[in-house]
Amino acid sequence: MTRVVHPIEQESFRRLRSRLDTSGFQPLTRAVVERVIHSAADLEYATDLVCDEPSLRAAHAALHAGAPVVADVEMVAAGITRRETVCRLRDSRSGPGLTRSAHAVRLAHEQVGPGAIWVIGCAPTALEELLVLDAAPALVIGLPVGFVGAAESKAALRASGLPAVSNVSEKGGSAVAAAALNALLYHPHIKENA
Questions:
Q1: Do residues 117 and 70 make contact, with C-beta atoms less than 8 angstroms apart?
Q2: Could you give the percent of the chain with pLDDT greater than 90?
Q3: What is the pTM of this model?
Q4: 166-182, pLDDT tens digit by residue?
Q5: Are 125 and 99 in contact (CB under 8 A)?
Q6: Residues 38, 60, 103, 109: which is the catalytic one?
Q7: Over the stretch 30-43, which tens digit does the pLDDT of each residue have?
Q8: Is 64 a catalytic residue?
Q9: Whose CB among 28, 183, 188, 192 lies 3.0–4.6 Å from 35's, allowing a Cys bridge?
Q10: Which residues contact 161 (CB under 8 A, 6 or more apart)?
Q11: How many CB atoms lie within 10 A of CB 111?
Q12: CA quadruple 74, 75, 76, 78: dihedral positive or negative?
């Protein structure tokens, strides 16, 4: 199914590209960077995001082959278009040393198993919990936001060696996390050896 791009979105990307030259990025990295910047109207993401093109290529293939997508909160899930997501926050409970977001990650992991694409845009504790599970993700989009634990959880994600999209600063959030996933959904299939 071909995605029809609204003229307002076309103009927004034209303006973005008039302010920032993204032509030096590799194709999927460029798609992610541009869509994240577009979602937040924040050009600083061009230097704040950390992407790895080979990881994005593998995740893109997994996503288009039907890998499950897990969102940490319903705001992330609502922002992901063209794909059903798993979000177990409503089923989760907090307890001693366990936030609802962390419990939701445990529940989702039990449901989807390995090979999922995880999209975390709200809770650093969700990202922290994912890092201690043996989740074997196809990709972790780790863009939680906040002054407590967000930058640290993203640094831990990068240090983990898992295939990931993250950023260095405290900023992030549901809209940018969903945008990063949507960039992979919207990008056309890539032929091998292309």
A1: yes
A2: 85
A3: 0.93
A4: 999 999 999 999 999 99
A5: yes
A6: 38
A7: 999 999 999 999 99
A8: no
A9: 183
A10: none
A11: 13
A12: positive
